[in-house]
Design goal:
4-stranded antiparallel beta sheet, Alkaline Phosphatase, subunit A, alpha/beta, 9-stranded mixed beta sheet
Length: 482
Amino acid sequence: MRIAKRISRAVSCRNSGGLAWLPRIVLAVLICGQLARADEAPSDRPPNVVLIVADDLGWTDLACYGSDYHRTPHLDALAARGMRFTAAYASPNCAPTRACLMTGQYTPRHGIYTVNTGARGRAAHRRLILAETRTQLPPELPTWADLLAEAGYFLGHIGKWHLGDPPTHGPEQHGFHVNVAGFRVGTPPGGYFPPYRNPYLEDGPAEEYLTDRLVDEAIAQIHQHRKRPFVIYLPHYAPHTPIQAPPELEKDYQDRPAGQHHQHAAYAAMIDSVDQGVGRILATLKDLELDQKTVVMFYSDNGGHQRFTSAHPLRGGKGMLYEGGVRVPLIVHWPGVTEPGSVCDEPVQHVDFFPTFLEIAGVESPADHPVDGLSFVPLLRSGGRGRLDREAIFWHFPGYLQGYLPGQRWRTTPAAAMRAGDWKLLEFFEDGRLELYHLADDLGEQQDLSDQHPQKRDALHAKMLQWRQELNAPMPEPVPSP
């Protein structure tokens, strides 16, 4: 097994360009010979997992989450067969969500708070000196991919990584056997049509669409590794900017009546393409008789871009700690476990994927690796009617994100937030302002209750301060006076 794994990892590095390298993979299989038989697990092998992550997909961007314009029949069907979460959370932008998802740790532990730098926007408008943010996932931190690989799983990464560059900080250095298209960037360098300008994805035909190509690559990995337990991690670049869609699909949406809150044709077509890819992956699993042995999850890394979508009735969008920036879709189908058509209102978050993956695979968490998340497997088994044993969930965002709407200077200034039950507290570090909302009565965060409920405000703030102290969370400092 160890020899086979080493050969697989060595060839996977050469296979980073994608399908064009398949002959070398076949050669590796021949070299492995009889060793490959060790990968053929018995019928009671642990479940496979396919995790599909959209990029910048808002909470209401799927039809099963309320959109009357976007067509998502395959994701709607997945939700009808499995469980739809109404209170799943992420970080307000891309990279920190991915780091939290991979490690099970909050941002103060791994140090990735935002994308590239928190010193965004005009320096003259920033009142604080920011805490430094890492741009690469520390290699010493174990990921669920590391642990599942050690347990005998095949791990395939296809799509956006955004946590550092190979060969030192790429997916292969964090447990994955194969990496296609993943490196440090958060947006497709060449756009969604060739030339992709991606050193880990060879160009296809001129008319090829990136989302479709990544699905092709994922399906190829499923076929190749179907004889052993596998995890396919498919973090799409779509529908992140640039907003580019297949022309015929975009034209189809241009000819449709606009929805009440969604009407951007190209953005809608990008989501449609992601949905079609989900359908193709589900069909592949069924054709290979793996559909009853595979947990399929769909998630988004943060809220939607407000220039192209609306999270109504939520407030805000990508880059904000209001609900529209951090509440995202999550759908899970685990055959024989999730109750068809079930809905879970219990809050879950990015750090929960690490312990969830380990429980699904029957793998122990390292004793020396602090995990901030909780497995949501009990929710999957209970039809979504259970509760997770924690007091609160937290966000720490000590950086600036410039605005992208007319008259909007900032999406956020350095801030923190927490949710405890139905209460949500936000703290803005520039002026120490606290805002308090009761989400059960005010999902859109329109009525600040901090003055009406000072005891609740102060009690939650004390918990937030304690949490920051326990995790040694860095705080920005005032800009020195001239």
